[in-house]
Design goal:
Its EC number is 5.1.1.7. By secondary structure, the protein is of the alpha+beta class. Helix content is 16%, strand content 42%. It has four helices and 19 strands.
Amino acid sequence: MQPIFFTKLSTIGNNYLILNYLEQPELSLDYANLAKHITNPRTGILADGIIILLPSELADFKMIIYNRDGSRAKTCGNGLRLIGHYLLEIERFNQPQITIETDSNVSILTHEEDLITVDLGFAHSLIDPCHPLSLKSQVTDYCGDIETPYGIWQADMISMGNPHFIIYTDDDHEAFEEEMERISKNYDVNVGMLTVINPNELLLTTYERGSGLTSACGTNAAAAVASAVARRQVNPYELITVHLPGGDLYLKWNEEAHLLATGHCTKICCGTYFFEGEKKDF
């Protein structure tokens, strides 16, 4: 058995287990298999995934994310804020800002006391990856048709370093949960059902690949705000409240067209998990 020391943190219903290898060598493990077992609610510690914290040659720190199904995520908005909170607690975030390397890019974190903000950078169109969304973007630059049992739906196809479909509706989001799962699996994307409440408020439900229906997805919320700003549904340069099943996340499209996400994080517990590396995958 391999002892794995972890710290569990939570933000708006998202829970991740952080494995800290800043001061000790990274363990040689099958982390995809570990993620499946350690996050199992019956035999492990319930969580949406694991985050491995490492030194970086490109940034101040590096994080690698595995979803609870063992898939590797390129980036994670809520995970970045959780890492920021964790680094604050261990006194490694004493400067005004730090940089975190992910599989997708390098993100900038800032904090005001214990409130963490992550700069998620530009939103890009999945239709034309070289095209960052701007206030001059045309809907055809980032919107495409998808077939569903309900007919042809339009989806705003947006990358935040990972892929997202944003689908607008005024109906109850729960009615489309099965269809969200189908779209996610067919297109290998995170799917967000979005309702515009007013120019500063959105309602969002997300099916996240690798995790399923989730309490919150920071990059999906950023993609939703980018879509709504480009469509002139919400205000740029102002704080937008995104109501998620797990709580509220606050986002802003700033003057550089970067998406900034802000929210509180909480430390839940820490402990040791004993991993039997020869366990078979689910």
